[in-house]
Amino acid sequence: MLVSHRHRFIYTKTTKTGGTSVESYFEPYCMADGEWTQAHARDEYASASGIVGFRGTAPPPGTLWWNHMPAWKIRDQLGMQVWAGYFKFCVVRNPFDKAISNFYFQRSQRLIEVDASTPDAVQFEHWLASGGAKSDRDKYLIDGEICMDYIARYETLAIDMERICARLALPWEPGRLPTFKAGIRPAWAVVEALYSPRAEDIVRKAYAYELDAFGYSFGSPGSPTSPVGAERQG
Q1: What does pTM read for this prediction?
Q2: CA 211 to chain centre
Q3: Going along 31-176, which residue ranges are E strands?
């Protein structure tokens, strides 16, 4: 998560949506000039310039700000005046694709036992049935209502980030957007290859809100058919 007091924005970090790359891009605007260097992990940072949440395996005891904080907690710690006055944004992703990404990431971290004798599709279904399909809508909902001013989409991230930069009067420099955690998921592991009917049903139930609110559907996503994010009106 990020807060820039200099540029008056708040970024809440969802899971498996390119969040660390987005954080890295906007971090310099949350720190004093000359303090920022690019890093995958990050200690908690807070100054008059802004806030960068801890980014790592587990926040140390006493940490006030960390990467995947829920929106309500950020609001409560900042105070209503700052929360209401700053531009707030996050990124969402097609739940069917997001679940696959999370599955392979957890395998890479040895949080899921790999069985070489069992097809990935079977292991994926078992993981979903065992509670792997977890929503993180607390990053953009408070009391069941959307609390963001702009919700970008992973499928059109560059377009959305350019719009966010324009809204904040910041330069859009696509070459400065890093790629973290690339290469973990096999190229063949697309929606059509991994999902059984049962796996599809589990994700539909777990992410019913996201599928309805953001218009996502079953199948491998592609930017030409994925609607671009939009700024909330009113």
Answers
A1: 0.91
A2: 16
A3: 45-46, 50-52, 87-92, 141-142, 145-146, 150-153
Looking at residue 233, what DSSP letter applies?
A: P
| 3-state SS assignment for residue 97 | helix
> The tokens 């990050």 sit on which residue?
42
**pLDDT grade for 180, boundaries at 50, 70 and 90:** low
**Residue 108 burial (CB < 10 Å; 0-12/13-18/19+)?**
middle
Contact criterion met (CB below 8 Å) for 29 and 4: yes
Report yes or no: 162 and 93 within 8 Å, Cβ to Cβ.
Answer: no
Q: Which residues pair with 145 in a beta bridge?
A: 142
Contact indicator for 2, 8 with CB cutoff of 8 Å? no
Give tens-digit pLDDT for 18-28: 999 999 999 99
Q: Quote the pLDDT of residue 51.
A: 98
